[in-house]
Design goal:
four-stranded antiparallel sheet, single chain, alpha+beta
Length: 191
């Protein structure tokens, strides 16, 4: 608290400083969230590129598995292969089909996953903007020339949303009440 009752203040004069540590920690967390989501988006792009290439390989392997089943079936008809060889080739074809379906799903999910991450990034950027604004507002200045009528807080006091910090009135007898403007409960005051 930089003023006392009865003190004259001028427009723009620094009145109160709220403890910046609470706001700084929130800003650091918000910055970390933004960086984390950006990294997830980058990793998703790399994984998608890899999945697209792998999908092409899965298709080739599926074709080979289908040809192996056809070959073993022909050999079986000519009594040159056993039933177990046909069964093994059919199992390999089934596994490859499942692998292809799984890889196709990963490729198909890219768009929706990216949309979700971009939405999370927007929320994280909004939260970062809020924390930067809260940090800026941790220094409270007089918005007009006047006289301090009351100082409702002292250094170290806990304040909440809408708590009155300082009352200032203008020489024309109008009264101005400063309230804690943040949406963050229980913050400390600091000199």
């Amino acid at each position: 608290v930089r003023v006392r009752p009865g003190q004259q203040v001028t427009k723009g004069q620094h009145l109160v400083t709220l403890d910046k540590r609470d706001f700084s920690a929130a800003r650091l967390q918000a910055e970390a969230d933004v960086n984390d989501i950006n990294a997830q988006i980058e990793e998703l792009g790399l994984r998608h590129q890899s999945n697209v290439k792998a999908l092409e390989q899965e298709k080739i392997l599926l074709q080979l598995a289908e040809k192996e089943v056809q070959r073993n079936t022909r050999l079986k008809k000519n009594n040159l292969s056993s039933e177990s060889a046909v069964s093994s080739a059919s199992e390999a074809l089934g596994r490859q089909t499942l692998s292809l379906i799984s890889k196709q799903l990963e490729v198909d999910r890219y768009g929706t996953t990216l949309t979700q991450l971009k939405a999370r990034l927007k929320r994280a950027n909004a939260r970062l903007a809020e924390t930067k604004l809260a940090l800026e507002r941790s220094d409270i200045f007089s918005s007009f020339d006047g006289v301090v009528a009351d100082v409702a807080v002292a250094a170290g006091d806990l304040v909440r949303i809408n708590d009155q910090l300082i009352s200032v009135y203008s020489p024309k007898h109008s009264r101005y009440v400063l309230v804690f403007p943040q949406d963050i409960n229980l913050k400390f005051l600091r000199r």
